Amino acid sequence: MCDFRLVKVQSLKRYIRHYGINIRPDSTPLELAAAVAKHFKYDMDVSGSVAGEKRAIDSFIEQVTSEIQARSGLHDDSDMDGRLAKRRKLAEKRPWAPEDGEIQPGAEVAAKVQGEGIHARIVRYVGRTKKYEIEDADTESTDKSKRYHVLCRAVLPLIIPKHSEPLRKGKEVLALFPYTTSFYKGQIVSHESQDRYGIRFDDDVEEGKVVKKRKIPRYFVVPYPGDM
Question: What angle do CA 121, 43, 151 make, to 5 degrees?
Fold first, then answer.
C-alpha cells in the first residue's frame, strides 16, 4: 500500500542500486518510483505477504544504514562482529525457529501465554508491535475474547519445516498433555511409532505414582525452547 512517489529520489536510487534493478540512466522520479514499486510487489508475492514485506524492508534498511555508517565513520567492526556472533549463537541454539512474522495465519502453534503453554492458532502478525495475535485453537474464530498478543519467540509452529527429522531420545520438548489444550515440558524416552513419541512429562504424577511415559502424537511435540 506504499506510495513510492512520496519517497525521496536518493532513497529510490539506493533501493535500485542495492537490488540491481535495470533502469535507464535518464529515468524520471516517477519512473524510478514505478520500478521500485514493481520490484517491491514482486518480492512480497514471492516471499509471502506480511513476512515478505518485512524481509524486503528490513534488508533495504540494513543496507542503507550500513552505507550511512560507512560514510560517516560510525561503522564499528567490533560491534558488528558482536551482533553477528550473537545471531549465529541464537541460530545454533534454535535452528528450527522461524523468523519473525514467518508463521502464516491459520497455522497451529504452541504459545506461551501468561506463563502457560497453550494450543493456539495464528490470527495475524502485527508488524507495528512485532507480535502475533493468536487465539485458542479450540475456540471459534469469531470469539475474540480468547485472543492474545504475544512475542514471536513465545510462539512455535506445530509443523516445523526446518526440523523434519524425528527428534532424538533424551531431547527436551514441549508436548500437549493428553485430553488438555496445554503444553508442558518433558523428555522423549521412546519412539512408539512413526507418528507417536513416548514422553515423560516433568512432575507427572498420577495416584501417587510417577508416570514414566505417555504416548503423544508427534504433531503435538516441539523442541523445548529454553528462552520461550
Answer: 30
